[in-house]
Design a protein that fits this description.
The structure holds 2 protein chains of 2 kinds. By secondary structure, chain A is of the alpha+beta class. Chain A has 8 helices and 13 strands. The model of chain A has no long low-confidence stretch (mean pLDDT about 90). Among the domains of chain B are: about 5-50; about 110-165, no CATH class. Chain B contains 8 helices and 2 strands. Classes of the chains: A alpha+beta, B mainly alpha. Chains A and B meet through helix 2, helix 3, strand 6, strand 7 and helix 6 of A and strand 1, helix 2, strand 2, helix 3 and helix 7 of B.
Chain lengths: ~270, ~160
């Protein structure tokens, strides 16, 4: 028969005994130590979108689809442009925001009619429009990417430069990351059935080029830069001007910054 | 200890050992914790190199300029100077080794990406001359009148009378 004193003593020894090997493993894991010691590299890619400059031509979407072999006709895209049309508040009527992005703006916005899915096309008279603008979207390459946290197999990960990538050979297609992303930037590859996302044109950035969407934009609405380089023009804008990020409340620390952000943007 | 205690233990050890052997065979050697730490950097390192190897298709206008200086001079002072060559001429791929990759898009659809009129006064779209694609010579291609490299000029390849009839 065990008394209380003895039970407490044994329980303490047991708990201590279990914890020692676990912590020992943690302390002596060299790759983890290396990761934490040298975790900050010289490069951290960030993206800057100027909403004042975007005209909704969709050249960025076209270039992205061709550059990264994204299926042209399937309803998937790594980057897209949304149109926001805010109507004036009429007597007895609240101001309303209409949002659309037909085919992800692959062919640009060429009509005033706003695609409202099952509600059909909405034609808003020019005199009713309070404001209208275009919002390019892409993967935010978050500092705390929730899509990476939820991956059960280690198929999606973040590189030292902050780019979130997917290992196509390792992805099991469970879709947790597609559900986990608050920005809805992930989708399934129509043929490979693995999770797909914007790679921030990793293959171009490491060759010293810019992303395909940045190079295709005729208006300079999209820019890519290195936030660890204080002389980078993008870094200068982000650190000195009024920029905003999407869905800050999720705590993901998104790294796509928006100039000229409006409160209607979701 | 008695035999009936050892037998299941041996089976359990065999299963655990089997799983460990299969694991070492299946999991790549470079799979593990990388630079971004345990939470975000748990992956196969060689996959980064695989993504880096992805072929570049859009080589940018700087490459075009090296050989096509006359075309660059044609467009450099025009309002269209900021449009990358490859936006209309198609991605470079491995031109000039394989020039078949380039296919010029002369369609109306390309021009009206920017030049379809939208009544958005405060957006940058308002600074671009716009037309109603359904009413502005819907039977014609834009390039039949407008010279794409410099829209202020008319296209010398076409006569205006062809379009209006």
């Amino acid at each position: 028969m065990m008394n209380r004193r003895e039970f407490c003593k044994n329980a303490m020894i047991m708990a201590g005994g279990i914890m020692i090997p676990l912590t020992a493993l943690e302390v002596f894991n060299p790759s983890r130590l290396h990761a934490e010691k040298d975790g900050k590299g010289k490069v951290r890619w960030v993206f800057l979108v100027d909403l004042h400059k975007c005209v909704g031509c969709g050249f960025c979407v076209k270039a992205c689809k061709i550059e990264n072999d994204v299926d042209w006709d399937a309803n998937v895209t790594r980057t897209w442009v949304e149109r926001y049309v805010v109507t004036k508040g009429m007597p007895g009527e609240e101001p309303k925001t209409y949002i659309d992005s037909p085919k992800g703006c692959r062919d640009g916005f060429i009509t005033q009619k706003i695609d409202q899915a099952s509600m059909g096309l909405k034609d808003i008279k020019p005199e009713q429009i309070s404001k209208a603008f275009f919002v390019p979207k892409l993967c935010n390459h978050c500092e705390n990417p929730p899509c990476v946290q939820v991956c059960p197999v280690g198929a999606t990960y973040q590189t030292q430069e902050g780019v979130v990538l997917v290992d196509r050979t390792w992805c099991i297609g469970c879709g947790y990351c597609v559900m986990g992303c608050p920005y809805g930037v992930r989708y399934f590859h129509p043929e490979l059935h693995v999770a797909e996302k914007c790679t921030l044109c990793y293959h171009r950035l490491c060759r010293g080029m810019k992303t395909a969407c940045v190079d295709a934009c005729p208006f300079g609405a999209r820019r890519v830069g290195n936030i660890r380089d204080p002389e980078d023009p993008v870094t200068k804008i982000i650190t000195t001007e009024q920029v905003n990020v999407l869905k800050e409340e999720f705590g993901t620390k998104p790294q796509v910054f928006y100039l000229g952000y409006s409160m209607e943007v979701k | 200890m008695k035999n009936h205690v050892w037998r299941p233990l041996v089976i359990v050890l065999a299963i655990v050992g089997g799983i460990l052997i299969v694991r070492t065979l299946l999991v790549p050697k470079d799979f593990g914790i990388q630079e971004r730490g345990y939470m975000y950097g748990w992956h196969r390192k060689s996959n980064e190199a695989e993504w880096k190897k992805y072929p570049v298709k859009y080589k940018t206008a700087v490459i075009c300029r090296e050989c096509h200086k006359d075309q660059y001079d044609d467009i450099k002072d025009s309002p269209h100077h900021s449009i990358s060559c490859e936006n209309c001429h198609g991605p470079n791929y491995d031109h000039p080794q394989n020039p078949l990759g380039l296919k010029i898009d002369r369609s109306r659809g390309l021009c009206i990406r920017c030049h379809a009129y939208l009544p958005y006064k405060d957006s940058a779209r308002a600074n671009i001359p716009g037309i109603d694609p359904e009413k502005h010579y819907p039977q014609a291609e834009c390039v039949m009148c407008h010279y794409p490299h410099d829209p202020r000029r008319s296209n010398p390849k076409y006569q205006k009378s062809e379009v209006k009839s």
